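May I ask you for just one protein sequence along with its backbone structure tokens in two labelled lines?

_____
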Amino acid sequence: MRELLHYLASVLVDHPEDVRVDEQTGDDGVTLRLSVRREDIGKVIGKQGRTARAIRNLMHAAAATRQTRVSVQFVDS
């Protein structure tokens, strides 16, 4: 799932070399923290959060195939 999120973010931003995904596994599932440059955070979130919502939906679908839960957090670096 980490690779999927990295790929999705890399396609959207102007500086794909600065995309970083940190993964934290807990009892309630996986938390993925997506870190991009400050000027690229708007491209990942999108207008009114539509792109972020779409990314989260894709990640939830990927997690469902593995029967786990996932949450995605967006961070600017």
Remarks:
- The chain has a mean pLDDT of 95.
- The chain has one domain: 2-76.
- The helical segments are 2-12, 41-45, 50-65.
- Strands lie at 20-26, 29-36, 70-76.
